Amino acid sequence: xxxxxxxxxxxxxxxxxxxxxxxxxxxxxxxxxxxxxxxxxxxxxxxxxxxxxxxxxxxxxxxxxxxxxxxxxxxxxxxxxxxxxxxxxxxxxxxxxxxxxxxxxxxxxxxxxxxxxxxxxxxxxxxxxxxxxxxxxxxxxxxxxxxxxxxxxxxxxxxxxxxxxxxxxxxxxxxxxxxxxxxxxxxxxxxxx
Length: 193
Fold this sequence. Notes:
Strands 1, 2, 3, 4, 5, 6, 7, 8 and 9 form a nine-stranded antiparallel sheet that branches. The chain has one domain (about 5-180). The chain has eight helices and nine strands. With about 190 residues, the chain is of the alpha+beta class. The protein is about 25% helix and about 35% strand. Mean pLDDT is about 85; it is low at about 1-20 and about 175-193.
């Protein structure tokens, strides 16, 4: 199993965010559909920390209905996975669209996702769509840059399907197993729900 670095750590390692990138409007649809990358997600960090910056990007912060998600209403709807939505959420190293689909299963089947959990109350599906080795320019260490497409439901949002992408920067399995003491402890990804 690969070791997942905490989101803030991986951003510091991998994302030298320029002022131009911070001021550019993010392609949220690309990020949600796993067509983006960690640098694009990292460029949103200032907006997620400052509600005024979020509003300037067309994202109105919403009350937190789920302790694992920061939710936003978009000034202009986006189209993802063939659905229109103006409701998105960030959780850990990922971003999801909240779609008006009461059952996530048809979308998961359409996207050819693997089943993680499928009970009457909870459904979670996913698939790694990208896994690439990169080299940290500062340390020379090899890291695994990955993106996982996921679809699920969550009890805090009945009648909605969450669909999006989780981005991560992991240590390779061989370094994780070496126990050299240099690697940070694994971060537990918070699952809404």
